[in-house]
Amino acid sequence: MEVERSLSPMWVRVFEEMTVIVVDVAWLNSRAEQSRAAGRGQTMKLFDAHCHLQDPRIFDKAPQLIAAAVDSGVVRFAVNGVSEKDWHLVKQISESYPCVIPCFGLHPWYVAERTPNWLNTLKQFFEATPSAAVGEIGLDKGSQGKKVDFTDQVNVFRQQLELAKELKRPASIHCVRAFGSAEMVPEFANLGAYFSFSGFLMSMKVHKAKRMLKMVPSERILLETDAPDALPKSELDSAHLVEGASLPEELQSIEISSAPFAGARDVLTFPKEALNHPQNIHKFLRPLFKP
Ligand SMILES: [Zn+2]
């Protein structure tokens, strides 16, 4: 697609189908070592490159979620709006928390719901928020995205990319089954792209994850939680769940602690009602440290 060629910095988010992941384990280890040596606490400082703290399921809990994540070493959160309905909430959170980088964009799933004035509204948000990036935007041919006219998706995506270029803002891009294969990584990297990996790493076979990670230059790796979605598959006792989110009874009685990632045990698929806490970013970093 020609559109991508005209872009400046962008973040390409990586999903199941786009087999790309990154990480030079030695590099990460050395960073963690430096961080410990500098006495800045036991944990690495992390940037959650993509989450949705404005999501109606967790908006009222955002202050606690941010506080807990900051305590655990997460120093920045790129909070992505998804539709005209939530841009004001993203702005509101960013005004209360300097650690939040606001991102405004129309997500492909919500393209059909846009009003005739959506692009003007979006431009107004950028005018009023010079620190904001563009996102979440993109293309989706997955089970959810298939329901939205693809030509419409492309048009809306293109207009937002052009806006990002015009305003010189980075763009956070969602791509599911729409951009082609991992062979495109070098080309995207040359355009200035960063590749962001989520807790999906944890449900992959280790060798497959490492193969993916090797395809992306280590300095182009970002991590994201996509909270409150994308709860990483992990041992129940090592996960942080959003408190108060409805869980089936059999799970409510299990004590959630911060036990280290144990890796070898069977992974557990959480019920879809369980919500991902931004603090979980540490959980899916750990498997990457393993030799
Ligand atoms: Zn997202």
Q: What does this entry show, briefly?
A:
The chain is α/β, with parallel strands linked by helices.
Question: What small molecules does the structure contain?
Answer: zinc ion
Spatial sequence of strands, sheet with the most strands: 2-3-4-5-6-1-7-8
- Major sheet: size, sense and barrel closure? 8 strands, parallel
What is the distance, rounded to the nearest whole angstrom, between the alpha carbons of the first and last residues? Answer: 38 Å
How are the elements arranged and paired?
Blueprint: H1 2-5, E1 10-13, H2 25-37, E2 46-51, H3 62-71, E3 74-80, H4 87-96, E4 100-104, H5 118-128, E5 133-140, H6 150-167, E6 171-176, H7 185-190, E7 193-197, H8 206-214, E8 221-223, H9 249-252, H10 286-289
Parallel strand pairs: 1-6, 1-7, 2-3, 3-4, 4-5, 5-6, 7-8
This protein binds zinc ion.
